[in-house]
Amino acid sequence: MARALRYIFAFTLIVSVVWPTGAAIGMGLSTAMSILLLIFQKVKLNVRLLWPFLGYFVLLLSSILWSSDAQSATRGVEVQLSFLLLPFIANVLSATGYSRADLYVDLRLTLLVSFVFMGVDAYNAMAESSFIESIAGSQLSLPFVHRAYFMNYIVLAIFIWLSSESKHGVLDWVLIASMVLMLWVLQGRMNILAFAAATCLGGFAAVVKKSRRFLFGSLASLVLLMVFYVADFIPTRFDEDVAKEVQTSDDGVPQSNSRFFLWEMGASVWGDNLLLGVGVGDVQQELNNQYEEVGYEFALIRSYNCHNQYLQTAVTIGILGLLFMISIFLLPLASAIKNRDILLLCWVVYIGLAILTESYFVRFHGAFFISGITSLLWFTTRRA
């Protein structure tokens, strides 16, 4: 049954980027298999590691009670169901011997499937333009995954590879260089900055731990990013017309996606509901009401979220929910420092910075990947 769980989890991760329904099915089957392992093989759970995720989800679920839109509330909870299920699955996986090497194998297959779809997207775009022009403005889209969300998969693969102690050849280094290039091509700016910051911190930790491979790899990654920046061979993802729209404002209200203004709007909504938030069912409507009140038509038409997961959580379930969410990152960070776990350290720092400009948990892929990977890396830190 342990092997069956590994295969099901691998399937879940691989299809997550192209078939969200399949990932949801895989998550359900993994949960069922984990329960069977608990019953028949007496697998012991480390319950202490589960409480931050459980506390966050229980509070999110409870917010249905103070949400006026029950249907939206139910849908919002369903999107984040992974915060309840995946830490449980990760706990059982780690208890039955699932390792980070196994995760890397599954992740490589996931990226392989992803690149096939991305290659088709780029090929189709090239029918009307050059390859470089096809990248500008393109998500290099997977069917259901935004660029910023997919970049998390790539960053994790780089971190796992750099922290691995197994021997790799020249082709492996070429692969990692290609991954760094892909980060630049996708142009998720906060993801790139978060990756650079986490890599710098990881390089410092590598000096302390005397990990030459991670130190060299982190320095090489930073140099590559600088070369890509200086070369400027990938054009901006905004075309000229959109760029002009971004720079235009009217009476102090942006006419485009201004994250600072979105944060101001979110903070205003939270200010009226500090303790418990507005509830998972009403959060988007309350934000839209705020946009309408100040005349922020660009955000209102698109029903923009807060574009900051910390603020999004605070608006949704208040300061208590925010504390639970922060604990999901702070506790693994403490474990990483205690165990000198460079991989966990880099991942937590990276994702903690990346969510400053994206509300990842409002989409299935964001909640799925962050809850699953963070818990799995945390639960396996003693074997790192």
From TrEMBL:
One of its GO terms (molecular function) is ligase activity. The keyword Calcium does not apply. Keywords: Ligase, Membrane, Transmembrane, Transmembrane helix. The chain crosses the membrane at residues 6-37, 49-67, 79-98, 144-162, 169-186, 192-208, 215-234, 310-334, 341-357. InterPro entries: O-antigen_ligase-rel_domated (IPR007016), WaaL-like (IPR051533). It comes from the Bacteria. This is O-antigen ligase family protein. It comes from Phaeocystidibacter luteus.
